[in-house]
Structure prediction request, 307 residues.
Amino acid sequence: MRKYISMAFIFGIAMAFSLTACSEAEALETNIYGSINYKLSNDEDSSGNSYMKAENNSSKIGIEAEEGISEGITGFAKLELGVDTDDSNNNPFDSRLAYVGLNFGKIGSLSAGRQSSPFTDNVSGHTNVFEVYGSGADQTLFARDTNTIAYTNKVGKLTFDGLVKIDGSTGKDGVDVSEGTITYDAGVIKASGGMSSDEVNDITYYGAGFTADATSIGMPVTIGYTYTLKDAATDVNGNEIVASYTNGKATLMGGYGKVEDSTAYYTTGLSYGVTDSLTTYVEYQHANNTGSTIDTDSYSTGLKFTF
Prediction:
């Protein structure tokens, strides 16, 4: 009962927020978005035992808001919650993103709160195309984190994104994590490069990647590639490459990832757009492990409704 009351409360707040926006349409703009994603998977563990499970697959709900302050300056905020449709921990909601900021137009925007990693989004994002598997070889520090301040600015086809984490509790005075990326977007080709530095543990990640999207020129093929390096006491690099072919509402995807002197991942998947909002998918991944660790196979199928 508590779960349904909580969900009703969240949606009640969202509706009230939207109604307020309608009454002040010239000043405040809001957008409610989200997805319900559920999968049935059959995965093997490190001992080769196979297990089947039906479960939530990163469902979420969010609210975006923007309001003009003066000419060329706007305030904005985002609240995004992960929705555990299985309520596996007696807590159906988990914070994903929660930040507030100011957009100064040509000068750029500044935001603070719980935010996503520019390095993970912009560098690893070139090969993040699967619903369940993939990106196993990417060397990254985090996907989302708290206590962050971010800056972004776009000049022509170039976009700069920077982020620092200052949590005041790790024993390091000042910045705990710093990240910076530069992205060039020319439509058919999009390329990114950057770094992510864990100042506390003295570990730095470097990476670069690109996406070649031929769909914009009438060809149904997209290719993505990323190279990432974890610079630590023992360096580790990873390579990921993916390709997709789209025919109507169906998209066929394939990928290969390799961690230096370690696991190689072979991934394939097929998605189909039943409607503009509803997608069904099937995916398979083979992990080719090194040494005495046995190889594993994983299968998943699922439904995703986006709104």
Summary: The domain at 32-61+106-306 is CATH 2.40.160.10 (Porin). Residues 195 and 206 are 4 Å apart (CA to CA). Confidence is low (pLDDT under 50) at residues 1-11, 17-26.
